[in-house]
Amino acid sequence: MGAKLTFKYDRDGDILHIDKCAPYPEQQSEELGDEVIAQLNPGTGEIENPEVLFFSTRLLRGDLSELPVSPKLRVASGD
Q1: Rounded distance between C-alpha atoms, residue 11 and residue 32, angstroms
Q2: What is the pTM of this model?
């Protein structure tokens, strides 16, 4: 089965974590702008786990319409 996205909200840090895989120490962090941090695969540079900072504030302001990433989404086959 293909990778699935997992959404986790850290209420204390007010961060929405969007995980394509489990976080691991070798991932590299890069600020994408607009209060979004990407955890990158160190070998490929692929975004694996974006994090949206100040998520509840953005939600209340209605600023959730765009993230500065380009998705490659497809339906995972169910096995």
Answers
A1: 22
A2: 0.77
* Residue that has been written with the tokens 């979004």 in this structure: 36
Lateral strand order in the sheet of 15-19: 6-10, 15-19, 47-53, 36-40, 28-33
Name the percent of the chain in helix, strand, coil, to the closest 5.
Answer: 10, 35, 55
Please enumerate in sequence order all residues whose Cβ is within 8 A of that of 64, keeping only pairs 6 or more positions apart, or say none: 58
Helices assigned H by DSSP within the chain = 55-61
**What is the dihedral angle through the alpha carbons of 13, 19, 24, 50, rounded to the nearest 10 degrees?**
-60
- For the stretch 31-64, pLDDT in tens is 988 888 999 999 999 889 999 999 998 888 876 6
